[in-house]
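[Q] Does anyone have a clean structure-token version of this?
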Amino acid sequence: LAGASVHGEKTGIADYVATDEVDCLLAVRRLVSFLPANNVEGPRRVETQDDPYRPMTNAGDLVPVDPGLAFDMRDLVAEFVDNEDFFEIEPDFAGELTIGFGRLAGTTVGIFANNPLHLAGSLTVDSSDKFARFMRFCDAFNIPCILFVDVPGYFPGIDQEHRGIINHGAKVLYALCEATVPKISIVVRKCYGGGMLAMGGHKSLRIDQAFGWPTAELATMGAEAAVNVLYGADIRAASDPEQRRLELLQEYREEHSNPVRAANKRFLDDVISPAETRARVVRALELLSRKKDDPLPAKKHGNIPL
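[A] Here you go.
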């Protein structure tokens, strides 16, 4: 009974809400241009005339170093893909997660990116469903998946708990582990708690290649919260509590959430500069273009959490 806006913004049933019939037909044409003819073909390739290895010169300026400052992840995604051609899916639903199709070196890829403009990029019931559905679609049609990670975790609160965030959040983990296409993650800033696993922030959930920017923070929780929990008594006892808190904050970030430490533990493959992100991912896709997945033990089907 609901109109297009309800299904585009509230339920997520409509992947795209067109302004008129012409816009709808053009959107369908654009969507089909990214897809293979069937499920046994590889990802579609076209000539884009965009240098596959061009540096992303504006990437470092687009993302604030302070993890508390918001930015629009879609700006970074646009610079990342060929010719800034990004076709966003469900743009008005669960805005904390941006998904859609783009191309790298002419090859179609699926993009998953936390968007700090909404709920700081946290995962919710709605964005979990959005992630899992798109991940399974990409996997069904052999489309490689690229994940830009800036996630503080799953969004807390009674509303999310009552709506079943545990069950819906598990769909993300299931879809990520189930997918056999190449999966590459880039940790841009925050990568905390359960969100670290859900967004493929490190390689434990069958991520093929994982990179981190120097601004990346991989930890169980954010540095500010961790310092308050671990060193609260020390801070209160200090002659200058605020100065002591800042010292401990810097020490925690250097010792525990530093991306170099994560790379040393092999959670990340490398720490890279923002400018070289596109080139490194293109090379990783070239490496993974002939990826073969080991067959799993025979079974009727998996038991996805529904």
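[Q] Thanks! Anything notable?
[A] Strands lie at 87-89, 97-104, 107-114, 145-151, 183-192, 209-212, 217-219, 270-271.
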